[in-house]
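Quick one, T. Sequence first:
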Amino acid sequence: MLIDTHCHLDACAGDCGEVYAEARRAGVKRLVVPAVTLASFPAVRDCALRHAGCFAAYGLHPLYIGAARESDLDELRHWLASERPVAVGEIGLDHHVSGVDRRAQEFFFAEQLKLARDFGLPVIVHVRRAVDAALRQLRRIRVPGGIAHAFNGSRQQADEFLKLGFALGFGGAMTFAGSTRIRQLAASLPEAAIVLETDAPDIPPAWLRGASNTPGQLPRIAAELASLRGVPVAAAAAMTAANARRVLPGIA
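Structure tokens:
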């Protein structure tokens, strides 16, 4: 079984039902669909209701915090209580994009971690060029693990996430020959560390450079991971699916 632990199906180009059906035909049996803003929550819920293999996560993405209000946290609490998602996400920190209020990012990240802690939910964390800052918050506000999405940190940072009960998301970036650090980590991390993701329609793999990504690309991404680790594709798929079910028990 293949599990896409991070797919913005509600934002994919074209009809999301056909995108989902294509992924299923390719062998992707479960997809986690994280929200990014309060306005996206209904579309994410619709994906989960319409497609049996889709699972919703609700959260406020760090790059959209500029449009968020503190009252959005109350709404998020309501959605977590009423909809019972598999995770709080996509939340986190982004120190790559300039012009985003880092203080506001830190506030909303911390408050959403508290909500995850209160509801006993794992988190899906965006950590672009902010790994150490995210880890500081995660050590301070303990949650039931989760996934460090699109991980691109060091081995030492990876180990710190693993100590906190997280798995690390690997996807399209891993397929580029020039992504040496990501590829080395994919090859050498413990089996329990890795989950697969597409981040569709974003982070397209090497063979889709410049094009829109889809969850149907996950089998080829899994094959790339298998090649890097020197194992059969079926073994890589089984390993990553087991890890996904462990860190996101709601999809089990």
